[in-house]
Amino acid sequence: MATRLDVTAAMGTPAMTWRDADGSEQLAYPRGPEGPHTFMVFMAADGRLQRIEQVLKMTYFARLQPGRSDKESVLRLLGPPVPQWTEYYPARDELVWEWQFCDSWNQLARFDVLFDAATGVVRTAYQRPALMGPDGVAPFCGQ
Description:
The chain is of the alpha+beta class. It is built from 3 helices and 8 strands. The two termini are 27 Å apart.
């Protein structure tokens, strides 16, 4: 069984860490903006690896509940957004976080979570940018 030391030796220092009341830990390893993955590593209270999940997928995005999710729950579900794609819009009093991921068609896409500061409502958006490759076709993720 791998330990936390093994995980950090292989994956590096996590971008974010959460410790639960039972002593277990969750570690976030974002690979963006170049890579369309964020890996969540779950460690048991005894320091042993439980599982690793790639969370930038539609099944994880569907867990967000518009109007009920907060920043902390979004971070814990998806990991940190790409900093250079984070934007605040004063006219709407809205903060937007964005992640790049591989969509169901195996193409690069972006997922946004929008936080309305006035109402507390969270909403989401999905887009597949026209990232044209050298042959005029959007690049595939290679999965």
